[in-house]
Amino acid sequence: IKLMANLDLKGKRVLIREDLNVPSMDGKITSDVRIRAALPTIKMALEAGAKVIVMSHLGRPTEGEYEEQYSLKPVATYLGELLGKDVPVVRDWKSGVDVAEGELILLENVRFNLGEKGDDEGLSKAYANLCDIYVMDAFGTAHRAQASTHGVARFAPVACAGPLLAAELDALEKSMAKPARPVVAIVGGSKVSSKLTVLDALSKIADTLVVGGGISNTFVAAAGNEVGNSLYEKDLIPEAQRLCKETEVVYATDVRTTKEGFKEWSHSSKTEVRKPSEISADEEIIDYGPETAARVAEIIKNAKTVIWNGPCGVFEFDAFAKGTEVVARAIAASEAFSIAGGGDTLAAIDKFDLADGISYISTGGGAFLEYVEGKKLPAVQVLESRAH
Ligand code: 3PG
């Protein structure tokens, strides 16, 4: 595929699709990872003398409607502070936009446009008309075939990958296609059913497959234990049993439980450490026990490649955070090539301040998982078709 880094951008209208879909609470951005990750690409285009137009989605608004809560204005303000310049947000761009060389504008949330999600041809052409060069840099949205990620790349005069997308694809290929062995994959989190295909795919690549969170609970139940009120998926027990026969799956051999309901959870919630056979019906598993965390840390220590998606417990509360912390610290301390992706995973890395120890932090959630599953990302495929 063509790379933005190899093109002459001077004086060109350069339309960059970023993934600035950042979490926020009460109008305040709570993680700026994606904004910071997009920054080098935007700066590179500005410094090359391009007329820069950035676009992104934010959240999932009702398509075709303007909803203030999904406006990119707070993102523009934040980006403006990082760049030290004004970033105007443009809502009405279809009749053309005027940007000076070395300056930028941000188009308002692309999902306010009718046809965005359906990859509409008319809308794709309207985006394409804005530019001389289209740069796809939004790895986090590369699994979506939408007008701003896919359609526009068919019609733009030139379509290429930005530095962030290129770096993401390089790091994933390094860890997945030709990894240094042993490979340890750690899959945790709460969305059990959506991660089963990921487990299957990873079991073929990884030498050791470690599960945490709700996924580990499903394996604990599959081994015939009572799991009380724990988050797990009963329907997936046969699948978990099959996976255990086919490959070595490491799951909790001791767990931390609480009797408190989730509304009562706090940083000082009362917990107990139990063997899986000792869990009672009124308890809920909320983390690895110390023995399991230490065992997983030891496995990580001997790895040459680590792929991590999903926390091992409810790390948001200090009382339930130890398992995720021990695992995260082991990954950060290890000399293995480590790659981590997914919103909760990034939040855990942030909480324990371990970003410097991870070789590559992916900005992708769904896109990261689809890549890991071996699926083709449509926004990358279209760039391949435009490579010549
Ligand atoms: C994400 O957060 O995973 C991406 O920004 C894609 O968002 P979407 O799932 O709403 O398409």
UniProtKB/TrEMBL annotation:
What EC designation does it have?
Answer: 2.7.2.3
- The entry's keywords: ATP-binding, Cytoplasm, Glycolysis, Kinase, Nucleotide-binding, Transferase
Keyword Transferase among record annotations: yes
Enumerate the subcellular locations listed in this protein's record, separating them with semicolons. Cytoplasm
Q: Which InterPro entries match?
A: Phosphoglycerate_kinase (IPR001576), Phosphoglycerate_kinase_CS (IPR015911), Phosphoglycerate_kinase_N (IPR015824), Phosphoglycerate_kinase_sf (IPR036043)
Report residues binding ATP.
K195, E316, G342, G343, D344, T345
* Record: residues binding substrate: D19, L20, N21, R34, H57, L58, G59, R60, R111, R144
The metabolic or biological pathway listed in the UniProt record of this protein is: Carbohydrate degradation; glycolysis; pyruvate from D-glyceraldehyde 3-phosphate: step 2/5
Its GO biological process annotations read:
gluconeogenesis; glycolytic process
Q: Which reaction does it catalyse?
A: (2R)-3-phosphoglycerate + ATP = (2R)-3-phospho-glyceroyl phosphate + ADP
Q: Which SUPFAM superfamilies match?
A: Phosphoglycerate kinase
- How is this protein organized at the quaternary level? Monomer.
Q: Which family does it belong to?
A: Belongs to the phosphoglycerate kinase family.
Q: What is this protein called?
A: Phosphoglycerate kinase
Q: Which gene encodes it?
A: pgk
